[in-house]
Amino acid sequence: MYRRIERRMEVHHIDKIASYVHFLQENQKEGEILLKELMIGVTNFFRDALVWDKLKKEVIPEMIANYEADTTLRAWVPGCSTGEEAYSLAIVFKEALEKTKPNRSFSLQIFATDLDMDAIEAARKGLFSANIASDVSPERLNRFFTPTDDGYRVSTEIREMIVFAQHNIIMHPPFTRIDILSCRNLLIYLDTELQKKLLGLFYFCINPEGIIVLGSSETPGTQNALFTPVDAKLKIYKRSDTITAPELIDFPASFSRCLPESRQNKENCCSTPYQSCY
Length: 278
What we know:
- Helix 4 packs across helix 5.
- 38% of the residues lie in helices and 20% in strands.
- It is α/β, with parallel strands linked by helices.
């Protein structure tokens, strides 16, 4: 963060941080530019190919084997940037479903969120440059993308699986009843206490037997009791069923806590994406 602030100071020939703070207070546009500078949107399709192979060939087939037909699974991709991660998940789910249960009706609803509204708008369009061909196989380009003058557009069947929304993961209520939570390479930018808070939050968001996928340099850390490794090397974990309640650490103020009256009441209070409970 400090390096990026220094960069903006150099642009305006400001040598003292206090002077730059004063400059920010008087110039709203500079604050908006600085926010963009702080956003990290590095992503691509099917990053870490072995993770996607594992999800497609083993994890997703095992998951849907435990559900009845006509089930809609739910996934959440926080920090989705311009959508490559969410679209990759949708494609892999389609491929896994077509190979394992072609005659049974399953679907996946993906909630993909990010703090950056410009990134969300770009993700919704599903338009990508031609250089995605270096990450997406010819078979997938032919099956799930439509060529355009400037590159490729994600097919309608894949775009309809995903709801993109602006969301502040630290302050806004989380999505709940999640079967697959893909939060890759977000935690590494947060300090230890915030990582601990979010992992506790994710535990409550994920259904029993649901999974969480972390980035290649991330682990549950001090919250490892909350998640059981499916493949520790690939950073795929299952929600642990041995924990009664992890430590609650400063959950968002709007994160409602439902009274344990009945399963039906609990299902009702979790019926919308932003209305959350545990």
